[in-house]
């Protein structure tokens, strides 16, 4: 049965954000403070030659949208060149803590939302164009985005979705035909790069920073209206807003944020810039900027060169930083509840959910069922220590372990050779101490596996479904970028296809699951990135 789809420019948009919240009357794009409002109505600025570079078929189908032609009205709408009658585009006003410091008003400086579409299951999704031109929140920047960062955002949003990580999605990547000037290395050498627009999709893009902005400005009515809007549309199960419901809502935000962080930690995703304006009120991964995937297992690794000195947003810091961010959200919404102190209790919900979810996810990754919680905790702790010491490739290590599980259970005489093979497969030059720790851990793990009653093949299958073979290693994204910049989309297309089923073997794509090559270790974009985008 074929599901009927329509072209984007024919799709009927709803505009609950614009209609239910407060927008300023002025439509001018001059940078300014916008006190007293949730958003500004602002039209995207047209680009020279919008052409489709990539399209997410699954998401398009889910939204009832037909895949657009390379050029035409649908792509014009995806670039911001065509605003249809039912769209009421807007840029939201928010603030945020950046690297721990309150930065004042930020807002959508280059993202413009077109409105909301109804998906085939009846749910509602906001469509937002990133790189669509200046808004009152652009400050001194140009409102545009370069192809390299847009391609990274497009690819990773979808890759994370297929990994099962809570995330915003990406519908399309459109080349603009315009050049954008950026200093990619922050060395003063600005150069022209191709521009692009990504159409992002999420139930809402509201961030912690939207609430912080209203609170800092002392706009209590706006703060309440925003909370009521979010609860009504996105947490309806909590009931009619009231001081008690705000408490329960905050607890739920804490819970969802914990689940998101547990997912990041379980696949080795490092967001790179967890400012409070990059924390979604729905617990979704948002803003794929200087993110990266852990290759050698290092807790203090960050892909973001801007964060090299403080390492505030390093892999191992993410759980703590999310808690700090939630604390800032609690401070922002405190005026809405009777007992602000009680919000602190909800932060415990974060810590508890994070610990439980991480533990459950790690058991799945190891093919273990809950037998003895204390012992299993110690086993998992030991694994983290051994991985940190040996700095093995996290993704490859777990994948190899999954394949090896039946052999480990069979306990042949060649056990040491098997241990060696697992470590070697994932090693970037492990120290003898690191190797020894991993061998000892593997012995402990093998003993523990013996206590499992399931069929070894079933254990292997279940581990393979919890340990992805393919993740978007930075150097892979960089290869797709370099090809796309010369007009070759084949690398991008291949990655899109492979990352749709990251847990499947897909042997013809083995080379996309290998260790980071040596040349990529220091090359810009391949391991580390600046915020330039
Ligand atoms: N080229 C740009 N033009 C205008 N504003 C920008 C530009 N780049 C970033 N900003 C703004 O700077 C702030 C923080 O930057 P950040 O890098 O987190 O944003 P981003 O990647 O554009 O945004 P998002 O969080 O929407 O993905 C945001 O207010 C953002 O809109």
UniProtKB/TrEMBL annotation:
Keywords: ATP-binding, Magnesium, Manganese, Metal-binding, Nucleotide-binding, Nucleotidyltransferase, Transferase. Its cofactor is Mg(2+); Mn(2+). Coiled coil: none annotated. Signal peptide: none annotated. Mg(2+) binds at residues 278, 287. It catalyses: L-threonyl-[protein] + ATP = 3-O-(5'-adenylyl)-L-threonyl-[protein] + diphosphate; L-histidyl-[protein] + UTP = N(tele)-(5'-uridylyl)-L-histidyl-[protein] + diphosphate; L-seryl-[protein] + ATP = 3-O-(5'-adenylyl)-L-seryl-[protein] + diphosphate; L-tyrosyl-[protein] + ATP = O-(5'-adenylyl)-L-tyrosyl-[protein] + diphosphate. It comes from the Bacteria. The active site is at 277 (proton acceptor). ATP binds at residues 107, 109-110, 130, 142-143, 200, 207, 287. Residues 22-41 are annotated as: Disordered. InterPro entries: SelO (IPR003846). Belongs to the SELO family. This is Protein nucleotidyltransferase YdiU. It comes from Hymenobacter qilianensis. The lineage of its organism: Bacteria, Pseudomonadati, Bacteroidota, Cytophagia, Cytophagales.
């Amino acid at each position: 049965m074929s599901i009927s789809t329509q072209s984007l420019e024919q799709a009927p948009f709803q505009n609950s954000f614009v209609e239910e919240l407060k927008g300023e009357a002025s439509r001018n794009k001059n940078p300014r403070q916008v006190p007293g409002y949730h958003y500004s109505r602002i039209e995207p600025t047209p680009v020279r030659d919008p052409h489709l570079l990539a399209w997410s078929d699954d998401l398009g189908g889910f939204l009832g949208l037909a895949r657009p032609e390379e050029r035409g009205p649908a792509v014009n709408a995806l670039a911001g060149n065509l605003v249809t009658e039912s769209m009421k585009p807007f840029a939201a006003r928010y603030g945020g803590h950046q690297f721990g410091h309150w930065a004042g008003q930020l807002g959508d400086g280059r993202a413009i939302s077109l409105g909301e579409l109804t998906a085939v299951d009846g749910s509602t999704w906001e469509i937002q164009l990133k790189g669509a031109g200046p808004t009152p929140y652009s400050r001194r920047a140009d409102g545009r985005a370069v192809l390299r960062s847009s391609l990274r955002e497009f690819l990773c949003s979808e890759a994370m979705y297929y990994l099962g990580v809570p995330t915003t999605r990406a519908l399309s990547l459109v080349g603009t035909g315009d050049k954008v000037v950026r200093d990619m290395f922050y060395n003063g050498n600005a150069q022209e790069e191709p521009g692009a627009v990504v159409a992002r999709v999420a139930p809402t893009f509201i961030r912690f920073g939207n609430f912080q902005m209203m609170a800092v400005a002392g706009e209590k009515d706006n703060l309440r209206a925003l909370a009521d809007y979010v609860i009504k549309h996105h947490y309806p199960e909590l009931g009619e807003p009231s001081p008690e419901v705000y408490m329960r809502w905050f607890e739920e935000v804490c819970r969802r944020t914990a689940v998101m962080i547990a997912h990041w930690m379980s696949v080795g995703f490092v967001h790179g810039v967890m400012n409070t304006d990059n924390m979604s009120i729905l617990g979704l991964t948002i803003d794929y900027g200087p993110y990266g995937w852990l290759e050698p297992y290092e807790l203090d690794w960050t892909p973001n060169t801007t964060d090299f000195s403080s390492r505030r947003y390093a892999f191992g810091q993410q759980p703590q930083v999310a808690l700090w961010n939630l604390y800032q959200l609690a401070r922002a919404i405190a005026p809405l509840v009777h007992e602000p102190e009680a919000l602190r209790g909800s932060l415990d919900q974060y810590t508890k959910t994070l610990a439980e979810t991480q533990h459950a996810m790690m058991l799945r990754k190891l093919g273990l069922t809950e037998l003895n919680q204390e012992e299993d905790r110690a086993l998992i702790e030991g694994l983290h220590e051994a991985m940190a010491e040996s700095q093995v490739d996290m993704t490859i290590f777990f994948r190899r372990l999954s394949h090896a599980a039946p052999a480990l259970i069979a306990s042949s005489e060649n056990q040491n050779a098997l241990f060696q093979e697992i470590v070697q497969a994932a090693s970037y030059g492990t120290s003898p101490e690191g190797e020894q720790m991993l061998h000892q851990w593997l012995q402990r793990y093998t003993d523990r596996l013996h206590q499992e009653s399931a069929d070894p093949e079933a254990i292997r299958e279940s581990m393979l479904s919890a340990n992805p073979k393919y993740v978007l290693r930075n150097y892979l994204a960089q290869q797709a970028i370099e090809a796309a910049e010369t007009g070759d989309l084949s690398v991008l297309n291949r990655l899109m296809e492979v990352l749709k089923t990251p847990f499947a073997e897909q042997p013809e794509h083995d080379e996309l699951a290998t260790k980071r090559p040596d040349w990529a270790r220091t090359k810009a974009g391949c391991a580390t990135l600046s915020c330039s985008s």
